[in-house]
């Protein structure tokens, strides 16, 4: 049990990259890491399935209480004779290096260890970035300096009044996949805002969004490329079917079956011709994002596909 906490005292401790060897090792030559999940906040740090949490009510200038857990195993709370900030920095120094890759980075608050890093010499390569509703625009701007934006593929962004400006950032508007979570009754999302996004796949979790028809009309008249996709959360699959029916009646959409969905019930949808060898196809299914983001269990999808599919 004592060895589990040696990484607090040895800044060069490294977690085995090979998942078949879960023990901690001191292998200073094996870096940068490739992590499945990285989560940071002021009092919480997670690497893959291992978590360290500090109790903010039980910290002082020269001591802090730390709990470590791995999966379902929770170790006893350990009192360390160093400050919370010093312990957190040692954790980060032990696990994160310039060039560290993280498939999933859950960012809740800017940790202090970044304050003395040079963004020109310290970059994280992140594939999926999750932005907490607690983040402000300033928080994001501070973090973004330390991310290799060219590696960013997907962003999960819970938008509210305190962080609305994040949506204007070029890397957010152009990342391959954007999962946008908002509530129109509290923070209306305009059609103009949505049309300004250039993501290949935009996933909107806002059941109160009221501009679908305008979005469809704009897409039909646009030169958007094949592969462009929009997903919209729905509370009931009957709502998806009603959308299909409405476009059949109002726009002359014709029944169509999605080739990637095989014989599934959800393969049945409708399509509208866009010209230039493209169709705007509409279908639906169950929500694929993580459960904590499933504001709605179903999605309405529309995608631009080659007309001969």
Q: Which structural class fits the helix and strand makeup?
A: alpha/beta
The string of secondary-structure elements, in order, is HEEEEEEEEHEEHEHEHEHEHEEEE
What is the overall silhouette?
elongated
What is the count of DSSP helices, taking H or I runs of 4+ residues? 7
Q: What is the total domain count?
A: 1
User: If you compute it from the alpha carbons, what radius of gyration comes out, rounded to the nearest whole angstrom?
Assistant: 23 Å
Low-pLDDT segments, ≥5 res: 1-5, 7-31
- Indicate the mean pLDDT: 86
Q: What is the percentage of strand-forming residues? A: 25-35%
**Helix proportion:** 10-25%
User: For the report, how would you describe the main beta sheet?
Assistant: 16 strands, mixed
Could you characterize the architecture of this molecule?
The protein has 309 residues and is an alpha/beta fold. It has one domain (2-226). 19% of the residues lie in helices and 31% in strands. The protein has helices spanning 6-9, 84-95, 137-144, 170-174, 191-195, 212-220, 237-251, and strands at residues 14-15, 24-25, 34-40, 44-47, 50-54, 64-70, 73-74, 78-80, 101-107, 125-131, 154-158, 177-181, 201-205, 229-234, 254-257, 268-275, 278-286, 298-306. The strands form two sheets. The chain has a 16-stranded mixed beta sheet that branches. The protein has a two-stranded antiparallel sheet with strand order 1-2. The longest helix is centred in the C-terminal third of the chain and has 15 residues, at 237-251. It is elongated and about 70 Å long. The protein starts with 5 loop residues before the first helix and ends with a strand. Pfam families: DUF3557 (PF12078).
């Amino acid at each position: 049990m004592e060895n589990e906490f040696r990484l607090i005292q040895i800044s060069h401790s490294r977690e085995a990259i090979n998942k078949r060897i879960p023990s901690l090792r001191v292998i200073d030559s094996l870096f940068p890491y490739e992590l499945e999940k990285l989560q940071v906040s002021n009092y919480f740090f997670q690497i893959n399935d291992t978590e360290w949490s500090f109790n903010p009510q039980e910290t002082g200038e020269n001591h802090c209480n730390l709990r470590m857990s791995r999966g379902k195993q929770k170790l006893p709370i350990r009192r360390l004779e160093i400050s919370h900030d010093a312990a957190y920095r040692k954790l980060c120094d032990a696990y994160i290096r310039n060039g560290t890759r993280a498939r999933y980075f859950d960012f809740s608050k800017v940790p202090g260890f970044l304050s003395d890093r040079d963004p020109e010499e310290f970059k994280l390569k992140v594939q999926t970035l999750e932005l907490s509703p607690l983040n402000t625009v300033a928080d994001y701007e501070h973090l973004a300096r330390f991310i290799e934006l060219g590696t960013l593929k997907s962003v999960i962004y819970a938008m509210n009044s305190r962080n609305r400006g994040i949506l204007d950032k070029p890397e957010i508007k152009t990342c391959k996949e954007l999962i946008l979570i908002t509530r129109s009754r509290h923070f209306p999302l305009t059609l103009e805002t949505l049309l300004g996004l250039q993501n290949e796949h935009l996933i909107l979790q806002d059941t109160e969004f009221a501009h679908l028809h305008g979005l469809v009309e704009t897409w039909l008249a646009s030169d958007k490329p094949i592969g462009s996709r929009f997903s919209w959360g729905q509370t009931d699959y009957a709502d998806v079917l009603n959308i299909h029916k409405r476009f059949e009646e109002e726009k002359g959409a014709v029944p169509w079956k999605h080739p990637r969905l095989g014989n599934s019930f959800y393969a049945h949808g409708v399509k509208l011709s866009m010209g230039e060898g493209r169709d705007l196809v509409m279908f639906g299914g169950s929500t694929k994002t993580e459960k904590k983001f499933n504001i709605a269990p179903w999605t309405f999808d529309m995608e631009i596909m080659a007309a001969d599919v």
